[in-house]
């Protein structure tokens, strides 16, 4: 049974087997969580991402998919990069967002990760409403068959923390 916990703080300061990165499809770093993970993790993460782009992911990583690299200088063994969907009122992309969590857990299982730290995927610059992002994230993790023992949602601010914590009430 997977334990779900919530922490308010900086995901780059977490100690976990795997830290999930809300990446962009280029895998080459960006803003928000992605930029913070690349900065704190150091050049080894970018080097691994460049190798992925030179091999299987020449066009980048598709939305809803996940792939792992080294964690560089982070207190983790791996970074699992997943590309969340941008929110739009014109099209329901909930299944793509749920896929980010399922695919990240699938990769974590392949790696043998037992603790995984997730950010609120798509709830930052990709504009997903926080309460809905929290609902999809928690429901998906609960419904996913995984060997991961602890899923830790690391929320940057109090508003995000409250939205996620409300899912267990």
Shape: globular
Head-to-tail CA distance between termini: 19 Å
String of helices and strands = EEHHEEHEHEH
Spatial arrangement of strands, main beta sheet: 1-6-5-2-4-3
Contiguous helical run count: 5
Number of domains: 1
Poorly predicted runs of 5 or more residues: none
Would you tell me the overall average pLDDT? 96
Instruction: Estimate the strand proportion.
Output: 15-25%
Q: Over all CA atoms, what is the radius of gyration?
A: 14 Å
Describe the structure.
- By secondary structure, this protein is α/β, with parallel strands linked by helices.
- It has a single domain, classed as Leucine Aminopeptidase, subunit E, domain 1 (3-Layer(aba) Sandwich), CATH 3.40.220.10.
- Helices cover 37% and strands 20% of the residues.
- The protein has a six-stranded mixed beta sheet with strand order 1-6-5-2-4-3, with helices on both faces.
- β5, α4 and β6 form a beta-alpha-beta unit.
- α3 packs across α4 and α4 packs across α5.
- The longest helix is centred in the middle third of the chain and has 18 residues.
- The protein is globular and about 45 Å long.
- The model has no long low-confidence stretch (mean pLDDT 96).
């Amino acid at each position: 049974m997977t334990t779900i916990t919530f922490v308010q703080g900086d995901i780059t300061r977490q100690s976990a087997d795997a830290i999930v990165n809300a990446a962009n499809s280029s895998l080459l770093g960006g803003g928000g969580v992605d930029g913070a993970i690349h900065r704190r993790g150091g050049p080894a993460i970018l080097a691994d991402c460049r190798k992925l782009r030179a091999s299987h992911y020449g066009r980048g990583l598709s939305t809803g998919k996940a792939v792992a690299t080294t964690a560089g200088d982070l207190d983790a063994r791996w970074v699992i990069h997943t590309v969340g969907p941008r929110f739009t009122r014109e099209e329901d992309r909930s299944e793509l967002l749920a896929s980010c969590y399922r695919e990240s857990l699938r990769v974590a299982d392949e790696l043998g990760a037992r603790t995984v730290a997730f950010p609120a995927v798509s709830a930052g610059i990709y504009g997903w409403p926080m309460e809905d992002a929290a609902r999809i994230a928690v429901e998906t993790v609960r419904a996913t068959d995984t060997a991961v023992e602890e899923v830790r949602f690391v929320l940057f601010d109090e508003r995000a923390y409250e939205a996620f914590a409300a899912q267990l009430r």
